[in-house]
Fold this sequence. Notes:
The complex is a heterodimer. Chain A is mostly helical. Chain A is 80% helix and 0% strand.
Amino acid sequence: MAPDVSALQLVLSGDPALFAIVRLSLLVSLSAVIGAAVIGLPLGAVIALMRFPGRQLAVVILNALMGLPPVVVGLLVYLALSRSGPLGSWGILFTPQAMIIAQTILIAPIIAALTRQTIEDLWVEYRDELAAMDVGAAGRVATLLWDARFSLVTALLAGFGRAAAEVGAVIIVGGNIDGFTRMMTTAIALETSKGDLPLALGLGLVLIAIVVTVNAAAWGVRRVGERIAG
Amino acid sequence: MRAPIADLPIVLDDVSLLAGGVPIIDQVSLALVAGAPTVLIGPNGAGKTTLLRLAMGLIRPTHGCVTWGGRSDVPPTRRAIVFQRPVMLRRSTSANLRYALDAAGVRRGARADRVDELLTLVGLSGFGARAARSLSSGEQQRLALARALAKEPQVLFFDEPTANLDPAATKAVEDVIRTVAARGIKVVMSTHDLGEARRIAGEILFMHRGSIVEAADAARFFASPATPEARRFIAGELLV
């Protein structure tokens, strides 16, 4: 049987091993997006609105961090969480939690940098109105984040895309342990190296389907939201 | 509501604003006091909008000082402005008003009644659930006016409020401005539309090249302008 046919059969038959990997991948990547959004959205907005010495440098660094190499993030998180590391007492190395931390660190700069640019552009439009209404700093951040919500969906999608496709960081801090920390990307790499192309292809199909579905859902939500809120 | 602070009189004392060394506002001194609407007229580029923004406190002068009720550090809690192209927050019409009421310190329980009251005042009853950005230009201008009224201002600035509006929308906005002025709110408005200035103004400030060339009672100004620039402007000549 051709690898692509058996891959499709694996997906359609609801293979438990395959779907356990899919579930864990979604759990890790979506948790990382939530964590990175909690950090990145306000951080990006604050950098967009505040004027402080070294701000331009902060913007350059933030933009540069969008290209953070996953293996470097994985290595740093590994060192921090390893038994002799500063966070070794947590005992979470080679667990999904470690993978979530690594992916959060990886995608928070992406969300923050895109948020910074979006909010800065919106601020030009809103500055006078909010100043005239005497809205304070916290209120400005909240207002701009809320009014930019449809544009910021794109920032979250970029973060999710990066997390879902990432392999270097999670394989270092997760260890690719079967049934525990094996994710779609790490499984694809492993199964390909073992020559199990149907499973690798099946996982690849599911991964692409998930990314397309999440993007389509976000696009739909954005369109409906824009129609309601203007 | 926050404790009221008197914003009037608004005094500009020898105020100049330079941009790249070029004076946008040039040594202007004036006092805005309670009473009939004050209308700034003059050709495009005369400095009307900049003067309004200085008086609102949105920008600081390069030279001179601006005081509100005798103080120079008064936050804009009793003065408001309606911009030529107001920004509608990305939410419903009534949510825009709730936002303004929240910013003005109106307690949550009192907001719903105030929203209804303000929508009625500006003729937007029944528009509350509509997305603010889907309103027409004239309706957005009236919503901006309602938003400005949320803080119960002593002074309300209008920057070319009817520019780009059709006659019906212009009339609707002007009617609300007259209503607001009749309630005792000091209206300070810029326009380059002489007809509008005649309809609204009690006092005229005629600006040219960043200076107030002539300040006079509106009836007197239009009947017998004292300066050659004002005469030429009223006659419809181009002032360069």
